[in-house]
Amino acid sequence: MADVSSPMDIDHNGEKPNKPNSSSKGKTVVVDGTPPAHPKSTPWVEKYRPQSLDDVAAHRDIIDTIERLTNEKKLPHLLLYGPPGTGKTSTILAVARKLYGSEYRKMILELNASDDRGIDVVRQQIQDFASSQSFSFGRASVKLVLLDEADAMTKDAQFALRRVIEKYTKSTRFALICNHVNKIIPALQSRCTRFRFAPLDPVHVTGRVRHVIESERLDVTETGLAALVRLSSGDMRKALNILQVWNFILVQATHMASQHITEEAVYLCTGNPLPKDIEQICFWLLNEPFSDGFKHIAEMKNRKGLAMVDIVREVTMFVFRIKMPSDVRVKLINDMADIEYRLTFGCNDKLQLGSLIASFTGARSALVAVAK
Ligand SMILES: Nc1ncnc2c1ncn2[C@@H]1O[C@H](COP(=O)(O)OP(=O)(O)OP(=O)(O)O)[C@@H](O)[C@H]1O
Ligand SMILES: [Mg+2]
């Protein structure tokens, strides 16, 4: 019965944290830092997950504010939102460690809304956990319900959560985490203090990746590191995953010619077109007749296994960099945005390659007219 529960009733197996659902989308979260059975197979994203708020790279304003509120025991309900791999879950786990120390496992309930969405999650698991607090930890600080991927919750569940939050505000703080804040109903948003986690600055990604490179004693060239940071686009999880995959390939293939992680290796490992391939493609787009351009690009695409959508994205970046009249540039970029849009809806690659070449043919005529 809830009203005579002991702390062990909350932490049922006495070992694991309150975590009914494991995280989804392969983002397994190791909340207590317990070493796994095979340390070598630990994903680096977990091995190097920040343990304290000081370890969290970037977001200094947010961290300082949350730290101050935690120190003053004025922690509000939180809504942390922003793109993947920017430190939202890591930050809230570090807050929990700071708040509870060794009681950490018993004092948080970690739910992943996208695993088990719906009103039952809100009504049962949260309610049970939150309501047991006053009897089990009467003198302790408030508990924390961590609701990851909250944007996957149904509207009904969100409305139900609104009531649960109100009911247990005295004993429990809620931390909602999501990528898309616009999917959280306004009534919930207004009950939380919102913090936006922006994509990480290249400087911060570089700093943290360097730390991992040194700890793992990896041989990574400076251009390899720069490519890794660029491809991760502010997502630290992506950066660490690319690094680990490539290191794995190197360890497995001792016969490989290059035993260090180069720029080319990073691009190959991620399936992204190499900068020199993009330059070659752009050269063809700007110089070759339609049929020759089509033949060359299609052949390179097949030989190297490139995705059309990656080619279009990189060619767009190229168009941003080279000198041309702004109206020609705008037209080209709009055309390529249309092509990218059609590709994401499954339109045929060959047709879209034809469109790409056709829009460059149009741009070339405009450039020749300007030059005359
Ligand atoms: N700001 C950061 N400082 C240091 N490491 C970070 C940071 N952000 C992300 N990481 C690294 O990336 C991994 C994933 O981070 P985290 O789970 O905190 O991301 P998230 O913002 O919650 O992403 P998602 O929206 O996909 O859940 C962490 O384990 C950590 O290794
Ligand atoms: Mg997360």
Automatic annotation (TrEMBL):
GO molecular function: ATP binding; ATP hydrolysis activity; DNA binding; DNA clamp loader activity
GO biological process per UniProt: DNA repair; DNA-templated DNA replication
InterPro entries attached to this UniProt entry: AAA+_ATPase, ATPase_AAA_core, DNA_pol3_clamp-load_cplx_C, DNA_Rep/Repair_Clamp_Loader, P-loop_NTPase, Rep_factorC_C, RFC_lid
Record Pfam families: AAA, Rep_fac_C
Localization (cell): Nucleus
Compositionally biased intervals (Basic and acidic residues): 9-18
Spans annotated as Disordered: 1-46
A Gene Ontology term for the protein's cellular component: DNA replication factor C complex
Protein family (similarity comment): Belongs to the activator 1 small subunits family.
Subunit structure: Heterotetramer of subunits RFC2, RFC3, RFC4 and RFC5 that can form a complex with RFC1.
Protein's name according to its UniProt entry: AAA+ ATPase domain-containing protein
